[in-house]
């Protein structure tokens, strides 16, 4: 049972977010997906609830608990992947700056990000390199007290709304596979352009964009942390947040199962309710087994973060949780569409949306093939 993992405070967070998700978010979910327009009302709601600071230190209004963050994401993703995504895209730059930023950077950016007054984004992926971060081509060339950034990025989620983007660029030799740093590139800087949004299969409500940098001049103080350790520390922080991606998978799978149960209990065939067929009941049971297994894996990884576990042990737990939960989301959504029959491929029914969003989860934040590499490396090294 979920309650075995959660404190009283976390149960209160879960119940609050669950109620808001059902009353405020669920009625908007289909429209957000259909129009692919950024849900400003959902962002405002999350900000007013104070959820943006949730996993971070109490100094920023948070609970200092990754598990609390996972609970909130799970409940939102259960009814609307895109609204849950609003939390995640805000948490990524907060986590990176909190871990790798200078005191001045933290003072300038973190209060506004935690309160929702500011919005950020992270840009790593390029046309020729996704999971292979070391293969990026974007350059940062020193010019006095500044750096000149040149290159192009793709799939920068939230770039269209962000007040700044954390851009990964090579500060070393152009042909090397090392010496990468993150730079805080603010909206409106000369030489920085955000391209049109992608027309995505899933995760449609939080747009992703290409970004272009043409000798974009940023001060050296815009580098996250120091040149030697800033990128490594920030990337370690992103690894710490991977349980949140798993929580999205759990929530999405649970939501797909919720819709399926409601549908089969109200559907009749061959003189009986569809939910009375043994084959259907077995499919539902298999969905529940996998969801509960995923939830336990995600909560275990989140509790490890809260306990201060780091390095390879955490990387293994987080990779297992992300891989299993997002594969489960895809499997459950696929079976759900099957049980909906022809209705499953109609845009009039929400299960179509769960199927498309689940596929996205197997790819983003480190493909599940990359997660399997991490897991197997822990077994063999």
TrEMBL record:
Acyl-CoA dehydrogenase/oxidase C-terminal domain location: 229-380
Coiled coil start-end: none
InterPro entries found in the cross-reference section: Acyl-CoA_Oxase/DH_mid-dom, Acyl-CoA_Oxase/DH_mid-dom_sf, AcylCo_DH-like_C, AcylCo_DH/oxidase_C, AcylCoA_DH/ox_N, AcylCoA_DH/ox_N_sf, AcylCoA_DH/oxidase_NM_dom_sf
Cofactor needs: FAD
Domain of life per record: Bacteria
Acyl-CoA dehydrogenase/oxidase N-terminal domain boundaries: 7-117
Keywords: FAD, Flavoprotein, Oxidoreductase
GO molecular function: acyl-CoA dehydrogenase activity; flavin adenine dinucleotide binding
Enzyme nomenclature, EC number: 1.3.8.10, 3.13.1.4
Catalytic activity, reaction form: 3-sulfinopropanoyl-CoA + H2O = propanoyl-CoA + sulfite + H(+)
Domain Acyl-CoA oxidase/dehydrogenase middle: start-end pairs: 121-216
Gene3D superfamilies listed in its UniProt record: Acyl-CoA dehydrogenase/oxidase, N-terminal domain, Butyryl-CoA Dehydrogenase, subunit A, domain 2, Butyryl-CoA Dehydrogenase, subunit A, domain 3
Keyword Magnesium tagged: no
Keyword hit for Oxidoreductase: yes
Record-stated family: Belongs to the acyl-CoA dehydrogenase family.
Protein's recorded name: 3-sulfinopropanoyl-CoA desulfinase
Species this protein is from: Tropicimonas isoalkanivorans
């Amino acid at each position: 049972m979920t309650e075995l993992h959660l404190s009283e405070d976390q149960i209160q967070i879960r119940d609050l977010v669950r109620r808001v998700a059902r009353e405020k978010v669920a009625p908007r979910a289909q429209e957000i997906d259909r129009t692919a327009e950024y849900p400003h009302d959902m962002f405002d709601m999350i900000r007013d609830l104070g959820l943006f600071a949730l996993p971070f230190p109490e100094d920023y209004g948070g609970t200092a608990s990754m598990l609390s963050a996972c609970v909130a994401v799970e409940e939102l993703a259960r009814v609307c992947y895109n609204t849950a995504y609003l939390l995640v895209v805000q948490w990524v730059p907060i986590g990176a700056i909190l871990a790798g930023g200078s005191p001045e950077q933290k003072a300038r950016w973190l209060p506004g990000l935690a309160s929702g007054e500011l919005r950020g984004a992270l840009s790593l992926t390029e046309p020729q390199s996704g999971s292979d971060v070391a293969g990026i081509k974007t350059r940062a060339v020193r010019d006095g007290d500044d750096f000149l950034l040149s290159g192009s990025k793709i799939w920068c989620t939230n770039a269209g709304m962000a007040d700044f983007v954390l851009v990964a660029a090579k500060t070393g030799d152009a042909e090397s596979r090392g010496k990468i740093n993150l730079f805080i590139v603010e909206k409106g800087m000369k030489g920085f352009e955000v391209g049109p949004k992608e027309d995505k299969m899933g995760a449609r409500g939080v747009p992703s964009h290409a970004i272009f940098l043409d000798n974009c001049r940023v001060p050296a103080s815009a580098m996250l942390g120091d040149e030697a350790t800033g990128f490594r520390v920030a990337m370690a922080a992103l690894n710490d947040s991977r349980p949140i991606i798993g929580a999205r998978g759990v929530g999405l799978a649970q939501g797909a199962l919720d819709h399926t149960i409601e549908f089969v209990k109200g559907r009749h065939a061959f003189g009986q309710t569809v939910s009375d067929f043994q084959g259907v009941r077995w499919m539902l049971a298999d969905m529940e087994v996998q969801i509960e297994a995923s939830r336990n894996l995600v909560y275990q990884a989140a509790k490890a973060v809260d306990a201060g576990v780091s390095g390879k042990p955490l990387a293994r737990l987080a990779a297992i949780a992300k891989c299993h939960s997002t594969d489960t989301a895809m499997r459950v959504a696929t079976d759900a569409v099957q049980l909906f029959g022809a209705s499953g491929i109609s845009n009039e029914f929400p299960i179509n949306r769960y199927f498309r969003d689940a596929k996205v989860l197997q790819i983003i934040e480190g493909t599940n093939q990359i997660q399997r590499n991490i897991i197997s490396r822990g077994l063999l090294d």
